């Protein structure tokens, strides 16, 4: 059994949780979890923005080709 007092954050090595925990123990402390989630959202938004930019360029090219 895992000693719940010794669980540390994977990013900052702070103690994550002291006490009873049901299910899988957390791997990040709350501030590091928030930072990781924000970075994940930022990557997702950037990927989506790049996809939309590519689609707009393709539409512009097809429109120009059709008009010619």
* Main sheet summary: none
Strand content: under 5%
Q: What structural class do the secondary elements suggest?
A: mainly alpha
Helix content: 55-70%
Global outline: rod-shaped
Summarize the structure in words.
The protein has one helix and no strands. With 68 residues, the protein is mainly alpha-helical. The chain has one helix at residues 30-67. The chain is rod-shaped, with a radius of gyration of 22 Å. Helix content is 56%, strand content 0%.
Secondary structure topology:
Elements: H1 30-67
Brief synopsis:
The protein is an all-alpha fold. It is 56% helix and 0% strand. It is built from one helix and no strands.
What are the salient characteristics of this protein?
rod-shaped; mainly alpha; 68 residues
